[in-house]
Specification:
207 residues; mainly beta; Jelly Rolls; 7-stranded antiparallel β-sheet; 1 helix; 16 strands; globular
Length: 207
């Protein structure tokens, strides 16, 4: 069964410095019909204004993936990492037993547009970790590029969950198929997120 949920049906919050759209219940947005999708807990589309950001805060027992659509985001965490994430890059932070971090937009003129995706891990209390990788446009143009997976296949970043996240830059005039992994079980679920007219991401999560 295919269920279509349009972008304007998501939760929305505008704090001035931050504008967010929530696919699932998050912060002040609560929707009993959209709590999570299998092990996928959060898909937030955020636009952070220049010079603004998230003060230091904590996470635990979550695989947190940040995908930059445009602009740049600065990250600093209690593991000693301090990096800028640019458009086309993906950041994976394993919160595990607990981590503190902050994020802000270092630009004085350009907003940063990003997706933040939270996946519940298959084990609690993992050792926190941090990874960052660039996936160039040519690797995504007209084809699916695997970003994260449980086995680090095809150069993807490894997460502790039977889930795969891919991205593609697609020609909207053509018909495209979202592939299911060859080892997919009958309980396999696919979720597609169109994040701009030429881009799409999808994730497979297991109940």
């Amino acid at each position: 069964m295919i269920t279509l949920r349009k972008a304007d049906a998501r939760g929305h919050a505008n704090h001035g410095w931050l504008e967010s759209w929530h696919s699932f219940s998050f912060a002040d947005y609560h929707d009993p019909a959209h709590q999570r999708f299998g092990t996928l807990r959060v898909i937030n589309e955020d636009i952070v204004q220049p010079g603004a950001g998230f003060d230091t805060h904590g996470h635990r027992d979550m695989e947190i993936i940040t995908y930059i659509l445009s602009g740049r985001l600065s990250h600093c965490d209690s593991m000693g990492n301090g990096e800028d994430i640019h458009a086309g890059e993906i950041q994976l932070m394993r919160a595990g037993s607990g981590v503190q971090h902050s994020e802000f937009n270092p630009s004085d003129s350009e907003a940063v547009h990003l997706l933040q995706i939270w996946i519940m891990p298959d084990e609690q209390g993992l050792v926190p970790g941090y990874w960052q990788k660039t996936f160039p446009e040519e690797a995504k143009r007209g084809c699916w590029c695997l970003l994260v997976s449980p086995d680090a296949a095809d150069g993807s970043l490894r997460i502790h969950q039977d889930a795969r996240l891919s991205a593609a830059l697609l020609d909207v005039r053509r018909r495209w198929t979202i592939p299911s992994p060859p080892d997919a079980k009958p309980t396999c679920m696919l979720r597609a997120v169109v994040c701009r007219p030429t881009g799409m991401s999808w994730l497979r999560g297991m109940r």
